[in-house]
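Extended Data, panel c. Modelled sequence:
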Amino acid sequence: MAAWTRDELGRIDESDEMEIAPTLGDGSLRKPVPVWVVRDGDELYVRAVNGPGAAWFRAATRRHEGHVEAGGVAKDVIFENVDGDTERIQDTLDAAYQAKYARYPSDIVGSVISGEARSATLKLVPR
């Protein structure tokens, strides 16, 4: 399985937003949408603020592949559902979102750490 390079992780982590474009059923890419991205060690995660019903999230979980761009890094990715030690990773990601986006109003940050957003968390794996 491919891995993010240290340079890619650093550049993406330093950027505020990531453009995410899931692959559609016909193999084309959906129009990119901006999302917040956080890092946990050598892994990157995104959440749909509007939960599993968000159009981009539904598209991402149909084929589990797409394209992302942030910090000058452009990469084809696999979208993995967050499984296993879910509560631990979700708490870790909540803290990462709160730290990275602390300069934004608490209600905005609160939307990305809500239960609905937590239920729409994806790990980004380069392909």
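The chain is about 35% helix and 30% strand. This feature is highlighted in the accompanying rendering.
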